[in-house]
Every structure is written in C-alpha cells, then in structure tokens.
Amino acid sequence: VTVYVPRDSTALALGADQVAADITEQARQRGVNIKLIRNGSRGMFWLEPLVEVATAEGRIAYGPVETEDVAGLFDADFLNGGQHRLALGLVEEIPYLKKQERLTFARVGITDPLSLEDYLAHEGYAGLRRALDMSSEAVVQEVLDSGLRGRGGAAFPTGIKWKTVAATQAAQKYIVCNADEGDSGTFSDRMVMEDDPFMLIEGMTIAALAVGASHGYIYVRSEYPHAIAALNHAIVSASNANYLGENILGSHSSFHLEVRKGAGAYICGEETALLESLEGKRGVVRAKPPLPAIEGLFGKPTVINNVISLASVPVILARGAAFYKNYGMGRSLGTLPMQLAGNIRHGGLVEKAFGVTLRELLIDFGGGTASGKPIRAVQVGGPLGPYLPPSLFDTKLDYEAMAAVGGMLGHGGIVVFDDSVDMAKQARYAMEFCASESCGKCTPCRIGSTRGVEVIDKIVAGEPRQAVVQIKLLRDLCDTMVNGSLCAMGSMTPLPVLSALDHFPEDFGDGALNQA
Ligand code: SF4
User: CB of 485 closer than 6 A to ligand 1?
Assistant: First the structure.
C-alpha cells in the first residue's frame, strides 16, 4: 500500500515528519507492508498534515493528522480507505481542489518532488522535448503567443523579454530566476521549488534554449532552506540523467544551473537589485536603461523571470500556446496561482484562470475569516498593494480590471483582515516597511517613508484641524514618492497608505473622517 505524507514546509511545520515516522513505526509493529512517499502539498493548509492512501478508486485523504491519530487510523483500516473521523474521501473530489484549474500546479501534491522518474511519469520534460524539435525563434514565439505575463508582479510579457535577449548578440547570456518571494502572504514560488523543482529547471532550460544562454542562476531567499535543498537535489538528479549540463541541448549549447542564496532583503526581489546581489554587491536598485535583457548579470544579456513565470513555460510548450491562452480573460491569459493568507479559514493555494472574483476566492474557497468575524479589508499583491474594502470584492482578478479599481494583482498574494483591524496602523506599517526595506538610493523613498510614519502619527494623535493639515501633507508626500522614486518600492508604498485613508477614514480620527 502506498501512503503519502507531504514534505512541504507547511506540512513540516505542522508535524509531518513525526506523522510519517509514526506511520512507518505502526506499520512495522503491525507487520504491514507500506511504501511511504513524501509528496508535495496539495495547498490546503488547514488540512495539513494531509495523509493520502492509494486505493483502487483513487487516493483517499485523511487530515489534519496528528501523531496521536496514527494508531486510530490503522485501527480504522485507513490503508484500505476505512472510515475515520479525519477521512475526507477522494482527495481530487475535495471541492477546494476540484474547483481549481491547475496547469502550473498540475503535478504538485501528486508526485514525489525529488524523483525525476516520477516527474517523467507525469508529463515531465514533455515541454523541453517539444522545444528541442523547434527553432529557438519558434519557442520564443510560442511563449509570446501564450500571452504569459510576468507572474512576479510587474506583468510584463515574458516572451518580449525573451525576444530581446535572443536578438542581442553576446558570447555569454544568462537565465536568472527570481525566487526572492518576499511579498506578504505569498508562497506559490516556495511550493513550486519544494514540491515540483524539476518543473522550474525544465522552464529555465527551455528559456536557455530559446535565447542561447549557457548559465542559469536561481536566486532564492535564505528563509527557504527546504526549497534550496530540493532544488539542489533536483539539479544533481537532472544533471546525472543528462537533462542538464553538456548534453541536453544537443547541438544548441549546454546549460548549467546553480542556486544562490539571498540574505533577506525585500528589495532584492526587484530585478536589478537582485542582479547586483548576484554579482556579490549590496542589493541596490539600478537605473534603467539599460534593460537587464540587454545588459543584465555581469553586463550580459539576461532573462530574469519569476519562478511562476518560468514554471508556466513547460506546460505552454507541452500543450501549446493556444491551449494555455484558452484560460483567462482580456489581456490576462492563462492561470494565476493565488495564495490565501492572513485571517482566513481555509488558507492555501488556489490556481484559477484570470477572471475569478475576489469574493469567490475569499468565500467559496477561503470560507471567510478564521476568526468568524466579517472581512473588513484585503490586501492583494503584497505589502505595496492597496487595501480593498468589501464593496470591491466583486472585482475580477485580472491585471486590467484590478488596475481600474486602483488595485493590483502582484504575485497573487491575498491577505485578509477582519473587523478588528486598525487601518491607520496598517497605513503606518506600510511607511515603516518602506523605511526599513528601502535600498536608500533615492530621497523620496529613503526619507519620505520616515516622514510618512511621523505624519501618520500626527494625524492619528492630532486635533481635527491639525489632522486636516497633516493629511494634506501626507497626500503631498505620497505624490512625491509616486512621481520621484526610482522603483516600485517608493512609488507604490503610497498605494496601501492612501487606500487605507480613502476607504477607512474613520480609523484615522475625526479630522480624516470630516474630510472624507
Ligand atoms: Fe531604492 Fe526606494 Fe529608490 Fe527603489 S524607490 S531605488 S528602493 S530608494
């Protein structure tokens, strides 16, 4: 009997290693033969550790399993899908999973992330195989035609970056994967790296083939030790099996891949600061131009893409651009792995085609707040995303539709707050975050954020008349940050600040309320 216990960080944090050890020990004591596989997580975090058993009907799930439940599961004959209070039925039939459209995450939770054999048995390397039969121009065109836009947050067409690098003549080109996932409430990059690392490697290899690059780097934040370990393991397996290194690209070139560990700076998720850091320097934002596609890592043409962008490439190549762009709406094509976090009952990963509404995600998938209180605000798109009130929950999650209501999709992180949240404190926090994470290169961001904290304190503490003056000052300051900052850190920090003030003026005292 095959039993699955996830090895994903979320499951580990909830005791999966101990549960796996207990299942092995119980099986030994009872003389039962089992094969225990450490799979990836299905992304239903409130059910972790989610144990699955392979039966003739499909995989039956039990969860959340704690160490004291293990003996009872054996007593209930769970190895044959027996009934137990933790039984959840066929895992694929759990509505949270069944309602998703998993293209990038199609294998996640199903396979053993460290097994190349398992990857190959589940359509792994089908994309690269097809790419090897195409010209490099045709590969770039396929990515362009798919409509794939950067999933890190900027939503820039991935194919255009690739085309620029491909067209730039140079003896050396690089593929860099931005895995510095620093946005609040996000974990989709981490899940790809821990739960399906070969997919990222395949996506980067296809990128290398398309633009003629021989070296790749995956820049991973240091807070992700399990992701780093999984990637390093997968890189060695892929190299040993000739899926990386000298032979894979045949007559095209060779491709070598390395993992590099960041040191925990939010700004190193900004592509040019990341390149500086990769070069061994302090993570300071570079002025553009030149674009990284023309002068990137070590001054060479560089494709720099987020994990999810690169991980979406294998399915695009395997199934074709037409298949991929059949999902989504308008100019937002394909799917986006969204991440439900914060005060939410059913937190986890939901991959859906663009066009799903916030309400569907928060209620149908998320089940409302964990506290049971009403949702008051959500922040979509990380710490630089605006706070959205319930009146905007019917907005479709699509880059343009979100922008039209003053929002953004970013990396797909959704952080939920109930009615106990103090939005003035959240606005203050946005300025404080900017002050501590600013790279310091430009004044509006470096100094403006510190002044912003002070001004918000004055608004909240001040007499109504004084608060009115300070609110005007805050708006002026935000205007300067928006227009005078070199990168998104400074220019977007005003979004959470002003959205909190505009949608929730009552939290900023009488002065703000009267003005609203
Ligand atoms: Fe650095 Fe902030 Fe200027 Fe960006 S906006 S370059 S983070 S100082």
Answer: yes
Under 8 Å between Cβ of 343 and 417: yes
Q: Ligand 1: distance of its center to the CA of 118 in Å? A: 44
Who contacts 127 (Cβ-Cβ below 8 Å, separation ≥6)?
Answer: 202, 203, 206, 313, 314, 315, 316, 317, 318
Residues 503 and 387: beta-carbon distance below 8 Å: yes
- The atom number, within ligand 1, closest to the CA of 443 reads 8
Helix (H, G, I), strand (E, B) or coil at 507: helix
pLDDT in tens, 228-281: 999 999 999 999 988 886 656 555 568 999 999 999 899 999 999 999 999 999
ipTM over 0.95: yes
Atom of ligand 1 nearest to the CA of 487: 4
Q: How far apart are CA 172 and CA 254, in angstroms?
A: 12
43: left (phi over 0), alpha (psi -120 to 50) or beta: left
In the CATH hierarchy, which fold is given to the domain comprising 116-325? Rossmann fold (3.40.50)
Which tokens sit at 458? Answer: 């004055």
Can you give the residue ranges of every domain in the chain?
2-98, 116-325, 328-418, 423-515
Q: Which atom of ligand 1 is nearest to the CA of 441?
A: 8
- Say how far apart CA 377 and CA 386 lie, in whole Å: 10
The answer to whether 473 and 431 have CB atoms below 8 angstroms apart is no
Q: How far is the CA of 28 from the centre of ligand 1 (A)?
A: 58
Reported in sequence order, the residue ranges of 254-331 that DSSP labels E, i.e. its strands, are 256-261, 302-306, 328-329
Helix (H) or strand (E) holding 264: none
Is the minimum distance from the CB of 442 to ligand 1 under 6 angstroms?
A: yes
CA angle 167, 140, 308 (to 5 degrees): 115
Q: Is 440 in the pocket of ligand 1 (CB under 6 A)?
A: yes
CA 78 to each of CA 39, 81, 292: distance values in angstroms, whole numbers, following the listed order: 18, 5, 54
What fold is seen in the domain 328-418? Ubiquitin-like (UB roll) (3.10.20)
Report residue 322: phi and psi, to 5°: -65, -40
Residue with tokens 């404080």: 432
Q: How many C-beta atoms lie closer than 10 Å to residue 396's C-beta?
A: 18
Closest-CA residue to 292 (of 194, 370, 217, 220): 217
Phi/psi at 329 (nearest 5 deg)? -150, 155
* Cα gap 335→497, rounded to integer Å: 29
CATH class held by domain 2-98: alpha beta
Looking at domain 423-515, its CATH class is mainly alpha
Q: Are 5 and 40 in contact (CB under 8 A)?
A: no
The number of beta carbons lying within 10 Å of the beta carbon of residue 494 is: 29
Q: Kindly give the number of the ligand 1 atom that is closest to the alpha carbon of 445.
A: 2
For the stretch 209-233, pLDDT in tens is 999 999 999 999 999 999 999 999 9
445 CB near ligand 1 (under 6 Å): yes
